[in-house]
Amino acid sequence: MPPGADWLPALTGKSLRQAGKQFIQDDQARSLPSVSTILNATKPPEARAALAQWRSRLGHDAATKVTTTASRRGSQTHKYLRQFLQGQVVTCPDTVQPYWQSLQAVLADLDAVRLVESPVFHYDLGYAGRVDCVVSYQGTPCLCDWKTADVPKRSSDRLYDQPLQLAAYCGAVNHCYGDRLHLRHALLVVALPDQPAEVFWFGPDQLREYWHQWCDRLGQYDRRYR
């Protein structure tokens, strides 16, 4: 898939770790905390307890293996998605092939690629992130985020903080590129082995609600750490 004619200029940013938190530094050496850092630092107590119970139930070594495998699988799938969205020929290894096949129906509905794996910054609110892509899905411009999983999520309730992450990224994209576009939709795609990917589509009203939740979490972070 070749990039769209109205390709957005990618920004420069590098990841840094300071005091156990991830920051993204721009080309002027300004560092802002990442969206994932802010969400992790403000995770509700019940979510922390659920994660701790899961790790305890599996055992430390097994839980670490699960998270490491999932991270590696996601990174590999993102690599081939990036190549595809940039118009390159994609040849996936066997380990990625089931997830790649899962995505085919979604990929067929994409066009007008405008940005792929770029850092974005919201200087007014003081955060940064790295978006997967800005693209049109079934003709509607949106921010798109890719995930992989072994079992379906089935409900947006099981996405946890991921919709807040999408809203934060949309806000940062609009802040950086507001003179060229204003995103009001977001797409979360979960690739699954041996079955079609799950598609979660968020319209303006949903994104607005998640944006308010994100701003609340950002405010908590500011009060605790800045």
Question: What key phrases describe this protein's structure?
Answer:
226 residues, Lambda Exonuclease, Chain A, 5-stranded mixed sheet, 3-stranded antiparallel sheet, alpha+beta, single chain
Would you write up a description of this structure?
There is one protein chain. The chain is an alpha+beta fold. It has a single domain, classed as Lambda Exonuclease, Chain A (Alpha-Beta Complex). The protein contains 7 helices and 8 strands, in the order E-E-E-H-H-H-H-H-E-E-E-H-E-E-H. The strands form 2 sheets. A 5-stranded mixed sheet has the order 4-5-6-7-8, with helices on both faces. Strands 1-2-3 form a 3-stranded antiparallel sheet. A hairpin with a 2-residue loop joins strand 5 (127-137) and strand 6 (140-148). Helix 2 packs across helix 3 (60-85) and helix 6 packs across helix 7 (204-225). The protein starts with 13 loop residues before the first strand and ends with a helix.
